[in-house]
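pipeline: protein-struct stage 2 | run 1193 | Diacylglycerol kinase family protein
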Amino acid sequence: MIPGSDRDHPTFIRSFRFALEGIGIAIKTERNIKVMLGIGAVALIVSAWLALDPISWCIILMCCALVIHAELVNTALEAVVDLASPEIHPLAKRAKDIAAASVYVLSVMSALVGLLVFSHALGLW
């Protein structure tokens, strides 16, 4: 049961559909997701061009996935904060700013990891 509902949990397949719907909504409504997907696509193209070894591929894929994950969580948190506090409130701003900062930190670290992986693949160190 879903708390506060008379309905049963959605089926496994329906849960996947809900997840895909969430990704679609984020892509349609959030500029940052589009930017991050674009940068991720560039990273994957560069990875293919450099013919990275399997471990390096895993590192790049994980960095891309973690950044997208963080942005999706940030987007969800912002929606919940807006629902709970439609008026401007210092704590709502604080929560949203800290969530955005977590995406920023992860994005910068992922970019640095990408630079290390790519520079190694190019034989620069």
